[in-house]
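Hello,

Our lab assistant flagged a job as stuck in the queue for most of the afternoon. It eventually completed. Since we weren't sure the result was trustworthy after the delay, we are filing this so someone can double-check. Below is the sequence as submitted and the structure that was eventually returned. Let us know if re-running is recommended.
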Amino acid sequence: PRGMVATRRLASFAARRAFASVPGRVPGPGTPPPPGGFKQPPVPESLQGVQRIIAVASGKGGVGKSTTAVNLACATARALNLRVGLLDADVFGPSVPILMNLAEAGMPAIDERKRMLPLENYGVKCMSMGFLIPEERAAVWRGPMVMGALGKMVRDTAWAPLDVLFVDMPPGTGDAQISISQQIPLTGAVIVSTPQEIALADVRRGVNMYTKVAAPILGFVENMAHFVDADGRKVYVFGEGGVRRTAEEHGVELLGEVPLDPLIGTSSDAGRPVAVSSPDGDAGRLYEAMARRLIEKTAPFPEPS
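-- returned structure --
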């Protein structure tokens, strides 16, 4: 009986937190949340005038999520000529300052309304915890402090007007992801993974979480999909087609398969994303195609009544 009571309590808790697994296909863009389910928050005042908010997420670290977020943002600004923002929500491991060549740009300025002004490069407005604390200093914070920092970057930053705000999410499916979903109405989420099974297991958990918080899965990106050798042959270092199969299982679009290209790594380290430094290369064109597809399949938030 005790075991049965504990099991019922655990099931009840999981249901309240909306993390019970749901089999089958995930809802696509524009699908309303189920009755009684999670309802997205209203657009906060600081984001009035932001037309779309797209989370770029991953179930685990080290799969190239931040590189993907930066290149999607840069491709959207450069090729589509849209007004773009990039929020680095990874408080413990902010990557945007280096990837966007803003590590030496200093602290954000403050306007007359006491709001932080995003730092800008390559036509993208950026905000990151990396702008607010020294690079060598670790953010040794508990959950409430992390939530407060994320809230400050959302509420106390002059974001608008923007056609799209990309949010570089921290890896995983924990408090930070839930907090952002409670503070920001997401147009949808892009999930990044490498092809091997150990990464795909976390993808499935990520799909479940974003479905539960009523954020449509806009698509998957398979990163480090293959390496092209000197003879032009594709070498599948981490396995072949894992993300494609997972996308088919869940009824989610595969936005693209990004190769394991040394140019992506070297340009990222130099603060020159390939979407900017080599837009006509294979990787640059792929990021542009994915950015176009995301804008095509999403719509601006409705005007407030």
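-- support follow-up --
The delay was a queue issue, not a problem with the job. The result is valid. The beta strands are 53-57, 84-88, 119-121, 124-128, 164-168, 188-193, 217-222, 227-228, 234-235, 254-257. The two ends are 53 Å apart (CA to CA).
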